[in-house]
Amino acid sequence: MATTTNTMPAGTSKSAGTSKGAGRPPARAGRTRRRRNALTAWLFALPFVLIFSVFMLGPLVSSFLMSFTDFTSRDIDNPLAVGFVGIDQYAALFRNPQFLHSVLNTAYFVAAGIPLTTVLALALAVALNNGITRFRTAFRVGFYTPVVTSIVAVAVVWRFILQPDGLLNVMLGWVGIAGPDWLNSTTWSMPALIMLAVWRNLGTLMIIFLAGLQSVPADILEAAEVDGANAWQRFMKITLPMLRPTLLLGTVLLSVGFLQFFEEPFVMTKGGPLDSTLSVSYFTYNQFGFGKYGLASAASYVLFVAIALLSLLQFRALRSKD
Amino acid sequence: MTIPETSPLPAPAAPAPPEPTVAAPAAGSPGNVTAAVVRGTAPVPAAAAVKPPKDRNVRRRSGRRAPARRTLTYAALVAGVAATLLPFAWMFLGAFKTQGELLRRPITWWPEQPTLDNFLVWFNELHIGTFFLNSVVVAVFTVLGNLLFCSMVGYALAKMDFPGKRFLFLLVMVMLMVPGVVTFVPLFVMVSKLGLVSTYPALILPFLAAPMGVFLMRQFIMGIPDSLIEAARIDGAGELRTFLRIVMPLCGPPLATLGILTFLGSWNNFLWPLVVAQSEDMYTLPVALSLYSTGQNATDYGLLLAGSVLIITPILLLFVALQRYFIQGVAATGIK
């Protein structure tokens, strides 16, 4: 930085702004220059900062404030007149059986969906990386396709497939299984949505794991092989430990997404039957629809805290072994 | 905060080209090699690193077992891909069937009397042109905004010193963890107070500069050598000129990634448009399909499947054409 200031001849400066400090003593020129640099930097950041403040940070803060008030849809015109209710909304939330039900549903979805997606994605990534030598691109494109498609469009065909006498049950019938009425059964609606979510998220995780597998050094694997380690031992003792940062990234991203579980029930079951697929996000959305904005904000912050906690927990679990 | 350490980003590691040549780096930077390895198609490093032990393994010990296992792997992968793509096949086939055939049991596989009626309804009665145009307008503006604004702030965060820099970056990283429902309610309250419901700005503005894009651009620009930027400054270029003439031309790969991922997100975005696009002339494609599929057409499967095909086809074509950038982007950022 300093060299730039000293060596730059003012005459060669083409932009009007940079030539000003040339005649002053170095210290003051430096300070002026720093201030001008800071101004330039903030000008570069300005469009983002504006959008970020108005449409992200502002709502984030006002949602937090709203969760301590009795804000409803009638208060939109005069938001400052709402009553402050302290933690009443949170207390009401944890007494609300429907909310507690939605917490259990979300936990069910996360607890089943994350291990299933992770294990399948890891198996796929290993198979694509080590198991085959040709058609890798074709397989990758195939498995990744569900990720790029619109959930609304996909829901149409999945609802059709999951009908009692639809494609899935016809195919299950081939192997002698009488499939249930997936989306209208309180027992099977959630497994059906988990199946859909795994299908939609497998591709992303597979790509992340593939990138991680590429960074496992081949010479270590080779050395282990020379020492007599079989494929399974090499995978468990070398590949998996070296893959830990990638696994961490993958599972954290996945759980941030899965905890917000919303679109699948919204387009497939509307949260039913009998709230069996009502997630926390969906509960929040419903409260918003009823105009109970204070309660909705409180529920959304509970979810936010849960996401932060789970991420922290995963970092501890996967980090601490070193 | 934590994501940057673990993410397998090609960008920060990329020491960029040694010579300040502006045209070359797209092909030569290590960032691209990483991406190529991820793609699995990069023959040189990947094959050289992985193949020799494999071949020796095959020759030395499990001479007969390895090919058998490989065949098994292929069979399992083919079955997996078939299962993954089956819903799409079912969608495309169904879109050409008549309502009678769709409701008939046992189910039919190939359309017995292929018909275009389902598509014609969308074009003639349901104004799909309007919805398509809305989707395109929203996506294009969102992409352009992200490309410009995210790289501007990314440049400032990566290559400039200013008070509040660390705090700004921290805020961006925190925002990545915030679930959508948290900001949803106040955002809607604000948009309706501003009288923006059912307007393009309501559909575009909240997505115009995503924190993820800022993170992506910052990471890449950090990899551009300082000497290059210093040289430009010594030559008398202002920051704007340095940014436009030196930094941006080097940012091809991350801009491609950002553009594609933003387009995808915008095209498939559903909940926000559903809430703020309240008049039919502002519906985007997913909103239109979702409203038709819950309204009086809820059981008109042929129509809905045709609508699905119409939404999915453009993005599928884009994906197949640009798949390497899609996949490189996901590997780089860890997001879809």
Written description of the protein model:
The complex is a heterodimer of chains A (322) and B (336). Chain A is mainly alpha-helical and 322 residues long. Chain A has 2 domains: 1-6 and 17-50; 88-319, MetI-like (MetI-like fold), CATH 1.10.3720.10. Chain A is built from 14 helices and no strands. With 336 residues, chain B is mainly alpha-helical. Chain B has one domain (3-22, 117-333): MetI-like fold, CATH 1.10.3720.10. Chain B has 19 helices and no strands. Chain B has helices at 3-6, 25-28, 30-39, 43-60, 65-95, 99-103, 117-124, 128-159, 165-175, 180-193, 200-204, 211-222, 226-234, 239-250, 252-268, 271-276, 285-294, 301-321, 323-333. In chain B, helix 8 packs antiparallel against helix 15. Classes of the chains: A mainly alpha (322), B mainly alpha (336). The interface between A and B is large, with 117 and 119 residues.
What is the strand tally of chain B? 0
Mean pLDDT of chain B: 76
CATH class of the largest domain in chain A: Mainly Alpha
Give the C-alpha Rg of chain B.
Answer: 25 Å
Helix content of chain A: over 70%
What is the CATH class of chain B?
Answer: Mainly Alpha
**Residue share in β-strands of chain B:** under 5%
Named CATH topology of the largest domain in chain A? MetI-like fold
Number of extended strands of chain A: 0
Q: What kind of oligomer do you see?
A: heterodimer
The major β-sheet of chain A equals: none
Determine the CATH superfamily of chain B: MetI-like
Spans where pLDDT lies below 50 across 5 or more residues of chain A: 1-23
CATH superfamily of the largest domain in chain A: MetI-like
Q: Just name the CATH architecture of chain B.
A: Orthogonal Bundle
The rough form of chain B would be described as globular
The whole-number mean of residue pLDDT values of chain A reads 82
CATH architecture call of the largest domain in chain A = Orthogonal Bundle
* Low-pLDDT sequence parts of chain B: 1-63
Q: Which strand-content bin applies to the residues of chain A?
A: under 5%
